[in-house]
Amino acid sequence: MVTVSENLADAKNAELQDDLRDRPGLWKQITSFARKQPLGFAGLIVVLVFICLAVFAPWLSPFDPEASSYEHMLAPPGTTSDAGTFYLGTDDFGRDVLTRIIYGARTALFVGFTCAIVGATVGLVLGVGSAFFGGKIDLIFQRIMDIFMAFPLIIMALSIVAIFGSSIQNVIIAITIPFIPRCARVVRSSALAIREIPYIDAARANGFSNSRIIMRHMVPNVMAPFLIMLTAFVGQAILLEASLSFLGLGVQEPVPAWGLMLKNAQEYIRSEPWIAIWPGIAITLGVFGFNLFGDALRDALDPRLRSNQ
Amino acid sequence: MEKLLEVKGLKTHFFTSGGVVKAVDGISYDVAPGETVAVVGESGCGKSVGAMSILRLIPDPPGKNMGGEILFQGRDLLELSDAEMRDIRGRDIGMIFQEPMTSLNPVLSIGRQLTETVEHHLKVSRKQAMERAIELLGLVGISEPERRLKQYPHHLSGGMRQRVMIAMSLACEPKLIIADEPTTALDVTIQAQILELMKNLTRELGVAMIIITHNLGVVARYADRVNVMYAGRIVESGTAEEIYHNPKHPYTLALLRSVPRMDQPRGAKLEPVDGQPPDLTKLDGGCAFRPRCRFATESCAQAQPVLEEVAPAHISACFEKDRVGLTAGVTA
Predict the structure, then answer these.
(1) What is the dihedral of CA A214, A215, A217, A222, to 10 degrees?
(2) ipTM field
(3) Topology of domain B5-262+270-327, CATH
(4) Model pTM greater than 0.90?
């Protein structure tokens, strides 16, 4: 009887093995990702393009982003001059809009990634820790989070910049702080559910310490909500940085930044609309790309979903 | 014989808004090296809490140890620091959980989960731990262990996962394994395989086991000794044979009559245990089983019966145990 049932078990094993036999190559994985998640793939392309723009800005851009030229003020897109062609036109200081958008990607992505990574990671640790320990620690943590959550994101960021002054570090701090409780809250709710699943008890029964259980057994299981938050935060941070710059509290001239470009374009929006349109498109595409990519990334990284391929 | 584990008067109470739940209220038993002890009882009788208390895995609050001693190799586990306790968990005492579907971490590969324990407790290299993991998977009858190590829990069936759990519990050559209803979540044919495996492995490796179950068939076949628990107390304890053929507590008797037996004629009616399990917050001074007991007399309400010897190595906590014995006629 035992042998029969073991044969059955072997047959089952063999079946399972077939699932894993063909591990797809990298190219195959990419094409299958593009087919299954066309929107996510489009997001990925946008994100990659912006990253390339930011990294290779000095080589890609035709002009110096900060060099103004009185001869070419408010030139419409496509104007050619001795210095070269202004594909997207020039602004009121005669600076090339394309160049400033390419360099603006640097500012946007630097602020976006720094705020998102720091904010989401601190939120992750606080959220999982709060859920894991529970009881009074959880209660106190969550009330502190409530205080921070009570302020709307932009008001919070505005007041921090207003107090500490506007510099790129302060902009980053101002955007990061309101992210922490938002991420912590979402991560905590996932972690609360995970804490009750027996594998956490099993880990404890294996003699692992609290920090090890948190880092190795709980954190990887809340990666899905964490990654969504992280990528959404990049988009939000770009938007917030642009808003702060637009209000004059963020990045200061002459540093190229999309929000700042929009701010300067206000006066010319009727007569020379391109100055406003291009940075507007850049902000929209950037935020959109990161959000789409974030959703797809979650699906791709979850091992339970990965196996269904 | 030297005892591996001695539980003396262990009490674990839960302090809830509804009152104090005396989930484990003074249980005492011991386990010899290599011995298999079964703890049986209905849901909520405290058998799991009693076992989890040994590893101090009861969350505090709301659970709290209210007294007693747990001597493991002569050391009182309740006196140890958290760090010392962590060293014992997984290394000296392994644990197998009820739900193989959720007891493995879904985002870590089988290999990683096995090697993690080995690396952590035995302080060996990743490579040595891998070799040990392969050996362990072979031991629990999983084919192609090298390839299995790279798989994730969702690639495995319930029975396979429980084999992995057994492998994990055996990873550091523990002296005692606590199995909390290891087969409840599996279907019947797999149950038999898993139990055979556990029986053979504990015998070969000389590991003692506490098996918590509400399946009397498991008890009869695999346990050396049986503790029957009711409402947080042990009401009867003895060798498996004694308990099966000569039950001396009305609850044990009722349990035995509620399961199908091969030696009964076909179509024989099963007798359910009447009534509901008691509310553990509202126990009075009398015998907790009294309301459901067909042998109950007035004296049962006066005091709680204590465990007394009825035969060599067989104890029962019942005032009417002599009558239980007389009317126990199992085949009658």
Answers:
(1) 90
(2) 0.80
(3) Rossmann fold (3.40.50)
(4) no
